[in-house]
Structures are given as C-alpha cells and as structure tokens.
Design a protein that fits this description.
There is one protein chain. The chain has a single domain, classed as Cyclophilin-like (Cyclophilin, Beta Barrel). The chain is about 15% helix and about 35% strand. By secondary structure, the protein is an alpha+beta fold. The strands form two sheets. Strands 1-2-7-5-6-4-3-10 form an eight-stranded antiparallel β-barrel. β8 and β9 form a beta hairpin.
Length: about 180
C-alpha cells in the first residue's frame, strides 16, 4: 500500500519533487548548472532571470576570484567595461538560505538593497555573509552541476588589474559565454 501511495504522488506534477528554475552558465572553463530558489528569494530570482532572458550576462566575465572565498561575475564585459543595470532589487538575505560552498548569491554595495546584476559563487562556507543583526547577502540558488568548473575557476591565476583598479582579477579572462534557462 505504501509503494502504491508513493507512486500515485509521483504522478502529480510538482507535488513531491518540485524544484526551482534552472539555468546553465556556459563559460570558457566549462558549464555550471544552478537551481534557483524562487520560493525563498522571489525578487532576487526574478531580477537574475531578467538578465538571463535579455541576454546581458552573455559575454560577461568573472572579474573577481578569491580562492576559498568567492568567484564574482556578471557585471563587466570582456573588455572590463561596466554593463548596464536594471533597478536594484530588495535584499532577501533573511530567507533561510546560507552562503555555503556551492551557492550563488547577489553582490551588492553597502546599501543592502543595492544588488543589481553582479552575483558570486561561494567557494567555501562564508557564513559571515549571512544575515544576522544586519542584512546579509542574498543567496538565491545552488550549483547542481559544475562544482568542478568553479574549482577550476578558483584555481585560476589572478593579479591587480589597472582597468578595474583592484586585485583578484583573473590574468586570463574567464568568460561567461552564455546563460540560458534549461528544463529541470
């Protein structure tokens, strides 16, 4: 009887094995598939998917890579020119998701509600970025394939870049060639 009940539940779409939208990030170092948490970070996921759908993540780069911390991208072209942004999204860092290895979160300025298009992958458990007394950084998805690609990205040599006037910039561009929605 128990097996029959489980089999019947499996026939009801979305009831047992519901999952969020997925995107595939095709990079020059390999592909990364991310499952988005639209139920826990609806505004952030909508914002991210707006950039995916309008194609503006295509041919952007990972401009900041700090091994054991984060790989940040989505904000600059291959020529390291800032890319246009949409309206900033409201911070949703108190959503119960944590900045753990293999998650994706929104980068922002000191204003908690300033995230636009830049995101980062956590290369380690970065619990100090979670919401506590103050707003944290909004986690909105989890890597479901391609963690090995992120590990390769984390191992890429970096240096100071005069165009961005910052350190931790990959010496050879790590290009996000295309980001597309995929079927679950």
């Amino acid at each position: 009887m128990k097996c029959r009940s489980l089999a019947l539940l499996a026939l009801i779409p979305g009831l047992v094995w519901a999952s969020g939208p997925r995107v595939e990030m095709q990079t020059n170092m390999g592909n990364i598939v991310v499952e988005l948490e639209a139920d826990k970070a609806p505004k952030t996921v909508e914002n991210f998917l707006n950039y995916v759908d309008d194609g503006s993540y295509n041919h952007s780069v990972f401009h900041r890579v700090i091994p054991g911390f984060v790989a940040q991208g989505g904000g600059y072209s291959e020529a390291y020119m800032p890319l246009p942004t949409h309206t900033p999204v409201q911070n949703e860092s108190g959503n119960g998701l944590s900045n753990r290895r293999g998650t994706i979160a929104m980068a922002r300025m000191s204003d908690p509600d300033s995230a636009t298009r830049q995101f980062y992958f956590n290369l380690n458990d970065n619990l100090s970025l979670d919401a506590n007394v103050q707003a944290g950084y909004t986690v909105f998805g989890t890597v479901v394939a391609g963690q090995d690609v992120l590990d390769k990205i984390a191992a890429a040599p970096t240096s100071v870049d005069s165009r961005l006037r910052t350190s931790d910039v990959p010496t050879s561009p790590i290009v996000i060639e295309k980001v597309v929605r995929i079927e679950n």
